[in-house]
Design goal:
homotrimer; mainly alpha; 10 helices
Chain lengths: ~210, ~210, ~210
């Protein structure tokens, strides 16, 4: 449990960094704007999950450490701004570790609150990606989940694996590790080989005005 | 009750279809993106209503059938894509039946949770239109409720009629039918005769920069 | 308490007016669209605060007076449309009084529900600014909190002062007045002298593609 908590806080820092850097792309927002977007990116997914499940108090409302983790991420993003933009691969890895972790934590939480497996998988995926969706809405970008490479689907795959192994009573820590790794591996392969899901309709742009 | 439940599930399928087709208009999203937008369109309004009323568990979180109804709608949208786009009138009818049904169900639910009539009417309208509003925000379109023909106002009219007849102790099933029909009729007349509410200010575009 | 309630209702009217006028800038929405945007502007921040805190029932869901306050604000915005646009300073004052009031009310409410000081300050700020953020998302504008002059930061400053004075057991009414005034003063100075927070990165537009 202690280890998972540390991971959650670290995941929050990573998401806040990625949010702060994304906020800074489009315009030149001030410190408040960047921190705000880092905040929404980091806590948006988990807050939505808790609200949909009616699970109160919401994590960051109760535990002030998450608020400081976000401030910490924003300050790190400012200090190491140039370095971080050179380390695109490092950043990608942070984001990938973040969504892997948040997916499994979210799936687990939904299960523990009595949700069925389908709902739990959706809640896991929401925990991981909805912060980024809210960030994209606020900064008027196309939401990340509609981007080219496999993203949210990797989270659903990892959540599904977790649920299967859970069903077969695999040890929880091993399950956590295996399912999280699946998300990381799918995501790395997707970006390296530019993998995407099949289009809904190949001809859709031409067919519909 | 059984009949209403069937209608709710059918309404969810219809909204998922309309969401999937709308998602596909703008770009060429993949299967995940289309299903995601169908999902938000179908459950967004009801989820917001339940969250605002503090009514837990939220319908689709508890009842997995709604999740499968959405998947079903997305698959139907894919298979019958060309046909559905030719059957614009059928689609319009589906959407109209969907909002009529969701309005009355939402109004009823709010009333049963002790909301006053004004709040109940707003909750009914939210149930019907907010899924479409969220869809439009995600796909960066002008929200449907700001479109030309009368839309959300038809829902408010139906909800008001339901509340009036409820006040006069009209039988619930008859009331459901009459109020739902009012929404369908207003909506059909609005589209056929291109009816819209009066503008807030005729000269607003010129007056304000 | 009576006085605060009157202020809250007045604040709601002011926010509805500012929402209705903002809605009208971009296009020529009909009466429903304008009222809807006034509604979201007025109740969005407080609703989000209550949802995040799990504090039910949400204020306007319980107390129908807030719904009529919004209708009232929209009608006033229509009748005095030309006058209000000439009285930009008056409008600015209304908005400033609104955010000052909502910030302190929100901070107080979060505290009374057991939130820590950091969370309470965030909740106060959310109460004041998130209605405007939702309005801007709906009307596809750049969210107000990313605008030039200090806005949300003034709310955070006022909330922080309230929490400090609260900690030192200053009389609640005096605290309310002093902290609210701080927000008003910061905001007036920010607009008059065009004050903004430091940019996150001066060179960000050039550095990042």
């Amino acid at each position: 449990m202690q280890v998972q908590y540390i991971f959650e806080v670290l995941g929050t820092v990573f998401f806040a960094i990625s949010g702060a850097l994304a906020a800074n792309k489009k315009s030149t927002p001030d410190w408040f704007g960047v921190t705000f977007i880092g905040f929404i990116t980091a806590v948006g997914g988990g807050s939505l999950r808790d609200i949909l499940l009616g699970s109160y108090p919401i994590v960051w409302v109760k535990d002030v450490l998450f608020i400081y983790a976000i401030l910490c991420g924003t300050i790190l993003a400012s200090i190491f701004y140039t370095t971080l933009h050179k380390l695109r691969k490092t950043l990608f890895l942070f984001d990938t570790l973040g969504i892997a972790l948040f997916t499994i934590v979210g799936t687990e939480k939904a299960l523990s609150l009595g949700a069925g497996p389908e709902t739990a998988a959706i809640m896991g995926m929401f925990s991981a990606v909805m912060g980024g969706v809210l960030r994209d809405i606020l900064t008027q970008e196309v939401p990340i989940i509609f981007h080219k490479e496999i993203y949210a689907t990797a989270c659903l795959a990892g959540a599904t694996m977790y649920l299967l192994l859970h069903y077969f009573h695999i040890d929880r820590n091993i399950n956590f590790l295996l399912s999280g790794s699946l998300i990381v591996i799918i995501r790395i392969l997707a970006v390296r080989y530019n993998l995407s899901l099949p289009k809904f309709r190949k001809d859709s742009v031409n067919t519909v005005a």
